[in-house]
Amino acid sequence: SVSSIVPESCLLIVVGLLVGGLIKGVGEKPPILKSDIFFLFLLPPIILDAGYFLPLRPFTENLGTILIFAVVGTLWNAFFLGGLMYAVCQLGGPGLNHIGLLANLLFGSIISAVDPVAVLAVFEEIHINELLHILVFGESLLNDAVTVVLYHLFEEFASFEQVTILDIILGFLSFFVVSLGGVLVGVIYGVIAAFTSRFTSHIRVIEPLFVFLYSYMAYLSAELFHLSGIMALIAAGVVMRPYVEANISHKSHTTIKYFLKMWSSVSETLIFIFLGVSTVAGHHYWNWTFVISTLFFCLIARVLGVLVLTWFINKFRIVKLTPKDQFIIAYGGLRGAIAFSLGYLLDYKHFGMRDMFLTAIITVIFFTVFVQGMTIRPLVDLLAVKKKQETKRSINEEIHTQFLDHLLTGIEDICGHYGHHHWKDKLNRFNKKYVKKCLIAGERSKEPQLIAFYHKMEMKQAIELVESGGIGKIPSAVSTVSIQNINPQTLPLERVLPALSKDKEEEIRKILRTNLQKTRQRLRSYNRHTLVADPYEEAWNQMLLRRQKARQLEQKMNNYLTVPAHKVDSPTMSRARIGSDPLAYEPKEDSENLPIITIDPASPQSPESVDLMSEEPKGCSGLPPSPEEDEEGLVMRVKEPSSPGTDDVFTPGTSDSPSNQRMLRCLSDPGPRPEPEEGEPFIPKGQ
């Protein structure tokens, strides 16, 4: 019942205090947690376990936020705390006056970093949601580079007589060397481990050994050159895991998983017990002003840093960090054994106040682990902060998540925006095309695992049927369905579905996750900047322009080239006009090509009712005129409908010759109507 209220780390520290007090009471000298033992043997298993099983998707999606908290937040904490502690030392009396600015900045850099061991111990027990867990834990992992740089920088500066501007610039550049150098070392060893696991198919027993060996070599190589060993371990674990798990056997995978968990758990237990023992055994120098000021300014710096950085980060995040999230991030900034070990490494020659620093560091560690670690669980329940989902995501959810990734990648390609989905897709395609072929053995790098797994299961079932004597001979290519048809079995009354083991279900999940919905790998990526021109697009544009010009020309002709037609007379008035002045409707001498309109005055049809668009003059069709056409004069023809797919605007027809168009224009223009003069013959209305 005690462990449900008090975190395990607190109980272990209490056990260490009791053990240390017991050893001291017997008269022996209790052992102290030496920095070499801590950094070389106890810390690497915890970091490797965290890096190898790091939830990669939430980590990469929130990498920008994590880096801002880890780099800018740690720098802010170190300089804010160091500057204020220097002011306290100057005002604190004779016992603190001799502590200079560099010593205070070094103390600030040691105490400002969030500890991954303490965060893991507390946050895994309260089951906080994935976002907050990865933000605080990712910050505690990645701030190691800043802590290492600041620690070595101020330690070197303490031995200098004078610090120049060049030293400060080189110190700033060393941050990039330490962080990126550690990552590079980890990537190199991760690739070597993956390549080695390709050739271990005949020695399955020692497969887990390569994972531990290369990871530890990455850590030692980084520490050898004063690079970030934690960054190297994380990079090695992240890089090697997908390729190593594709090569090694399932038993080796189980061995790696449980051995890492056990190793990290033992290291964590020893670290917290040794913290308690070292507290009893170490030399302490208590100064109320220094210790209380350190504790107070640590809390103030953490809260101010989180509030200011979150205000800036929320301007760029889609999922904003709420005030509750900010409170948990600020409250979860726990300190641990890394700060104690770094303080223990200080040299008495340059830092005579080392005992006071260690006392203040232990006080801050105990306060954060005991007070904040014990109260964070009830605060999470009180604030109703979203907790982690205990159930595993279904295969359906994983498939839809991958489908949405493809969808967002396509949207980014169409928009021309290169977001993290775009670069993740590029990296996956490069990985599948080149890296997997080099680092994964056999046909696994080429054939989709889903098909290979199906063949494997089918063959296994066929072999079991043969061994059981169910059938004598099986054809070479036969499926399990056909096998069941050949030898039908009576089903039991209640059919029970076979329960998959957890390992088998996990294997199926992995196969589906890595091989389903890979259609984009075979398609060309679409980008609006590299569109291929449509060969028919220009022709269509020209066609539309010509149609538009033809309509505009027709409209202008109707508006400007013709005289408004007179009011249509009744058929009686038209016959009267033709009968009174037949010469006005006779053809002129020079109009040989124009049609002769012969109209019977008694006919009810008027010239205005003739469809001039359907008229053809005699001889236009290229055939000799028949005698019937000679007698009829004007021939009326029905216009044939155009065939589908042809353009009636600029497809040449029989009536599109210039002479026909001129004739149509003349016929559509009756000319100006003369005013009636006196003496002009006119038929009265009543006639």
From TrEMBL:
Residues 6-380 form the Cation/H+ exchanger transmembrane domain. One of its GO terms (molecular function) is sodium:proton antiporter activity. Residues 583-687 are annotated as: Disordered. Its main location: membrane. It is a multi-pass membrane protein. The chain crosses the membrane at residues 6-25, 37-54, 66-89, 101-122, 134-154, 166-196, 216-239, 260-282, 288-314, 326-345, 357-380. GO terms for cellular component: basolateral plasma membrane. Keywords: Antiport, Calmodulin-binding, Cell membrane, Coiled coil, Glycoprotein, Ion transport, Lipoprotein, Membrane, Palmitate, Phosphoprotein, Sodium, Sodium transport, Transmembrane, Transmembrane helix, Transport, Ubl conjugation. Residues 502-529 form a coiled coil. The keyword Nucleus does not apply. It comes from the Eukaryota. It catalyses: Na(+)(in) + H(+)(out) = Na(+)(out) + H(+)(in); Li(+)(out) + H(+)(in) = Li(+)(in) + H(+)(out); Li(+)(in) + Na(+)(out) = Li(+)(out) + Na(+)(in). Residues 477-564 form the Sodium/hydrogen exchanger regulatory region domain. It is found in: Basolateral cell membrane. It holds the Pfam family NEXCaM_BD. InterPro entries: Cation/H_exchanger_CPA1 (IPR018422), Cation/H_exchanger_TM (IPR006153), NaH_exchanger (IPR004709), NHE-1-like (IPR001970), NHE_CaM-bd (IPR032103). GO terms for biological process: regulation of intracellular pH; sodium ion import across plasma membrane. Residues 652-662 have a biased composition (Polar residues). Belongs to the monovalent cation:proton antiporter 1 (CPA1) transporter (TC 2.A.36) family. This is Sodium/hydrogen exchanger. The gene is Slc9a1.
